[in-house]
């Protein structure tokens, strides 16, 4: 790594998983234009998120990161945005209630448009075309023109992210996320499920508590914590020209922030120590995530800490494990031990989605709820055994009633996947499966039994 960092120093390094843009001038022009647009987030918010994550690393808060695998230009409307917020708010209520800890809420939203792919080309009926790399790059439909990478799409990413963030900010500070509305976040189609009913019981308890504290003088008018919610955005920092264009110097501190989102992460396929993604992200002050798969070595993980968090700052680095339920037991503990031994400060978070994807007989990509849960439980068990903090969870989910992952509440079967399979990339947990996950995590972490606040509800 060179000593001198600048927002463009990554250009001297190798960037994997980049589109083969046919028109480089158009890419430069588009990113030049974006670099003059207002930032999407403010450095002060990013610093607050870092403080919240420092609390997670100390075991005093829980990180809940979730959203689409890939956002889409087509599914862009108020209802989609509201329902994604709703499900995260509901899960946070369950986790806060069950764990008696604040939940740091981070969406995979307002910028999650670019995807790494295992193969650069896709072949259908003997025809090979560039793989779909997310709406930031090309269109999912299978034709030559649709699949040609088009840098003009990055501008649309910027404006869709801005509009999404605008509505999220309105919802989270304008009354929609007020705790007094906790019972209205339950969606009609989950309200009658066992999870929906359990959630409704928590909502009733909270409403009673709110009535009580109102009597003693604490209400939404005088206590902003009841009225407003802190909600942060995140995405994979994959297309570095776009990230560079939104990187700005903070006038207060003189530090650089990537103002495309509060938290950026580096994917499993682009985290090379000598690669362009690590070079770019080492120089911005945002909290950073790094995905870790089963081949990660101790040297790599320590190298990542040294480069991305040289000052060992709490809340800076979130290591996101995505091993798969069959591999986590063997591959993960040595990494946890090494980080503990070296005294590195990290947030450990579990992505139980990306190591557990398989193709159903129909050819549709899916994941089993049971395997997702198995990996999650092993993750927390490993941290308990090592005396370290399993700090959070990273999920692909949606507030809709989709049929993309099998198992869970309604025991969704592989034959049913086609009924409502809407993701443009990886399969997501639906609303009921997401609530189920939140209950299972909260219960498991509290050890269940009579001591669990959740079991006292039943
Ligand atoms: C993702 O989070 O959508 C992703 C591609 O993850 P990973 O880099 O862990 O495969
Ligand atoms: Co994914």
Descriptive report:
The chain has helices spanning 24-34, 43-57, 78-99, 144-147, 153-173, 188-191, 194-215, 224-227, 240-245, 276-282, 298-308, 328-331, 333-341, 369-386, 431-445; strands at 62-67, 103-108, 121-124, 127-130, 231-236, 247-249, 256-258, 263-266, 288-292, 317-321, 347-350, 357-359, 365-367, 390-396. With 458 residues, the protein is of the alpha/beta class. It has one domain: Aldolase class I (TIM Barrel, Alpha-Beta Barrel). The strands form 4 sheets. Strands 1-2-5-8-9-10-11-14 form an 8-stranded parallel barrel, surrounded by 6 helices. It has a two-stranded antiparallel ribbon with strand order 3-4. A two-stranded antiparallel sheet has the order 6-7. α3 packs across α5, α3 (78-99) runs parallel beside α15 and α14 (369-386) packs parallel to α15. The chain binds phosphoenolpyruvate (PEP) and cobalt (II) ion (CO).
Give the SSE map.
Layout: H1 24-34, H2 43-57, E1 62-67, H3 78-99, E2 103-108, E3 121-124, E4 127-130, H4 144-147, H5 153-173, H6 188-191, H7 194-215, H8 224-227, E5 231-236, H9 240-245, E6 247-249, E7 256-258, E8 263-266, H10 276-282, E9 288-292, H11 298-308, E10 317-321, H12 328-331, H13 333-341, E11 347-350, E12 357-359, E13 365-367, H14 369-386, E14 390-396, H15 431-445
Parallel strand pairs: 1-2, 1-14, 2-5, 5-8, 8-9, 9-10, 10-11, 11-14
Antiparallel strand pairs: 3-4, 6-7, 12-13
Helix pairs in contact: 3-5, 3-15, 14-15
């Amino acid at each position: 790594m060179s000593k001198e960092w600048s927002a463009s120093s990554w250009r001297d390094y190798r960037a994997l998983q980049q589109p083969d843009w046919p028109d480089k001038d158009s890419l430069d022009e588009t990113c030049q234009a974006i670099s003059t647009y207002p930032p999407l987030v403010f450095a002060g918010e990013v610093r607050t998120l870092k403080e919240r994550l420092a609390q997670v690393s100390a075991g005093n808060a829980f990180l809940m990161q979730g959203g689409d695998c890939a956002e889409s230009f087509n599914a862009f409307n108020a209802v989609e945005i509201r329902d994604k917020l709703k499900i995260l708010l509901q899960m946070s209520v369950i986790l806060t209630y069950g764990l008696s800890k604040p939940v740091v809420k981070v969406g995979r939203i307002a910028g999650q448009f670019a995807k790494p792919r295992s193969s650069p080309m896709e072949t259908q009926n003997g025809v090979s075309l560039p793989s779909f790399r997310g709406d930031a790059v090309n269109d999912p439909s299978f034709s030559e023109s649709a699949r040609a990478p088009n840098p003009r799409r990055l501008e649309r990413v910027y404006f869709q992210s801005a509009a999404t963030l605008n509505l999220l900010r309105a919802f989270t500070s304008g009354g929609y996320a007020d705790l007094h509305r906790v019972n209205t976040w339950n969606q009609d189609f989950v309200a009658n499920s066992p999870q929906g009913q359990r959630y409704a019981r928590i909502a009733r308890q909270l409403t009673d508590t709110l009535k009580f504290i109102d009597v003693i003088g604490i209400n939404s008018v005088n206590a902003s914590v009841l009225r407003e919610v802190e909600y942060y955005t995140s995405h994979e920092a994959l297309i570095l020209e776009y990230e560079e264009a939104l990187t700005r110097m903070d006038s207060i501190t003189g530090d650089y922030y990537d103002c495309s989102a509060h938290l950026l992460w580096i994917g499993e396929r682009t985290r090379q120590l000598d690669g362009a993604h690590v070079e770019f992200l080492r120089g911005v002050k945002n909290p950073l995530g790094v995905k870790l798969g089963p081949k990660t070595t101790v040297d790599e993980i320590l190298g990542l800490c040294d480069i991305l968090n040289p000052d060992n700052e709490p809340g800076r680095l979130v290591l996101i494990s995505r091993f798969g339920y069959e591999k986590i037991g063997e591959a993960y503990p040595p990494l946890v031990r090494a980080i503990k031994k070296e005294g590195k400060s990290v947030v450990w978070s579990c992505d139980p989605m990306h190591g557990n994807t398989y193709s159903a007989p129909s050819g549709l990509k899916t994941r089993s709820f049971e395997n997702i849960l198995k990996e999650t439980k092993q993750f927390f068990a490993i941290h308990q055994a090592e005396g370290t903090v399993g700090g959070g969870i990273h999920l692909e989910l949606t507030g809709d009633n989709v049929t993309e992952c099998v198992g869970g509440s309604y025991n969704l079967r592989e034959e049913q996947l086609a009924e409502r399979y809407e993701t443009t990339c990886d399969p997501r947990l639906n609303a009921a499966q997401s609530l189920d996950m939140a209950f299972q995590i909260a219960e498991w972490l509290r050890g269940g039994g009579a001591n669990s606040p959740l079991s006292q509800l039943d």
